[in-house]
Amino acid sequence: MAIVHPFKGWLPKPEKAAEISSVPYDVINSEEAGKMAEGKPDSFLHIIRPEIDLPEGTSLYADEVYEKGAENLQKLLKSENMHQDENQSFYIYQLETSDRKQTGVFACVSVEDYDNDIILKHELTRPDKEDDRTRHILTQSAHAEPVMLTFRDTADITFQMNKTMTKSAPVIEFQSDDGVWHRIWKISVTADVAEAFSKIPKLYVADGHHRCKSASRVAAVLREKNSSYPGEAEYDYFPAVLFPIDQMEIMAYNRVIKKVSDEQFKKLSDKLNLAEGASPEPAEKGMVSIYYSGKWFSAQLPEPINDDVVANLDVARLQDGVLSPVFGIENPRTDRNIDFIGGIRGTKELERLVNNGIADLAFSMYPTAIEELVDVSDEGELMPPKSTWFEPKLRSGLIIHTF
Q1: How far is 287 from 258, CA to CA, in rounded Å?
Q2: Of the candidates 349, 338, 333, 361, the residue with the CA atom closest to the CA atom of residue 272
Q3: pLDDT, tens digit, for every residue of 147-166?
Q4: CB atoms within 10 A of CB 273
Q5: Residue 230 burial by CB count (10 A; 0-12/13-18/19+): exposed, middle or buried?
Q6: Strand partners for 150
């Protein structure tokens, strides 16, 4: 059963939350981070993207990058703009867009649960990204950003959240530049929440696989160094926002092919029996919309290669039945002829890329269902790369876990 751990979070002053908090490190590159942080000395991007404060051309993996991140974090924590709670707490984190709310419990979860598959994964992690986040965590002695987890609610946890939100006002509330409202409540009486989660058999990683794996590696290093046991120290836990499954929304993760020959497009057209004049967004699972030469086409994806849960995913059907046989893309993780476009950018972005000659062809996908992600995780399988895009994104810098 799942273990959740209250902690003494570091929070910004309410009036500084919008200025300090930032998008997560992995949704922008260094150039974008630098532009976003211009004129914002307290932006959390200086902690999670510290290369922006170093000379241009500095390697992302240089020692000074990690040292600068730790220096920037300590400077922020010692400033008058941040405070640490005196008592261990759980928190509630709510995100609200123009059409929906998503509310979860902000807590620490157990590295041991991650290592023992109480917290289930659905993606492979890359060693280079693991190494990078592991060094940041070790150098900063902090988990600067939460991961996003989901779970099958018993209704008890939602009840606990509603009880807190009804009785108290948010300690932080602001609207970010993208129009999303962010609200934080504090749960000082933690026993009922911990008890409710103790009845949840599995947690599922939605977003943040590399941060989970890095937290596990950090704990292993520090246990050996300090001769401690699992669960004994604060570094054995890492922060997460846990959302009930029915609160989660996955957007499509679309694909573009950079170079497509006339022969390849003819092969694609013959294989899928393309129909011209399609909607840019497929209407149902198993359908795909294709943009090429200024026109939208629709098609039924090839049948799955077998009956297992992964092969039945639309992204797997596209990979197995189209990308590999038609375009020769065997490994989409490494093939430079394919790129992935998060659904938040919309189909207009696909049209822009093709119309401007940046790509020759685009695939607009039907979103993976959250139930499919859970089913794949339960089977102990892995999803194809870039299968899910979650929105809205958690803000970094709202609650920091130090150890």
Answers
A1: 22
A2: 361
A3: 999 999 988 999 999 999 99
A4: 10
A5: middle
A6: 204, 243
As a whole number of angstroms, the distance between CA 182 and CA 171 comes to 11
Distance between CA atoms of residues 114 and 162, nearest Å: 28
Q: In the chain, what are the domains?
A: 4-10+82-249+391-402 (no CATH), 253-366 (3.30.1760)
pLDDT at site 244: 96
Mind listing the pLDDT tens digit for each residue in 212-223? Answer: 999 999 999 999
Give whole-number Cα distances, 116 to 2, 119, 236, 389, in Å.
11, 8, 13, 26
Q: Would the CA dihedral through 352, 357, 358, 362 be positive or negative?
A: positive
Band the pLDDT of 47: cuts 50, 70, 90.
very high
Q: What is the 3-state secondary structure (H, E, C) of the chain?
A: CCCEECECCEEECHHHHHHHCECCHHHCCHHHHHHHHCCCCCCCHHHHCHHHHCCCCCCCCCHHHHHHHHHHHHHHHHCCCEEECCCCEEEEEEEECCCCEEEEEEEEEEHHHHHCCCEECCCCCCHHHHHHHHHHHHHHCEECCCEEEEECCCCHHHHHHHHHHHHCCCCEEEECCCCCEEEEEEECCCHHHHHHHCCCCCEEEEECHHHHHHHHHHHHHHHHHHCCCCCCCHHHEEEEEEEEHHHCCEECEEEEECCCCHHHHHHHHHHHCCEECCCCCCCCCCEEEEEECCEEEEEECCCCCCCCCCCCCHHHHHHHHHHHHHHCCCCCCCCCCEEEEEHHHHHHHHHHHHHCCCCCEEEECCCCCHHHHHHHHHCCCCCCCCCCEECCCCCECCCEEEC
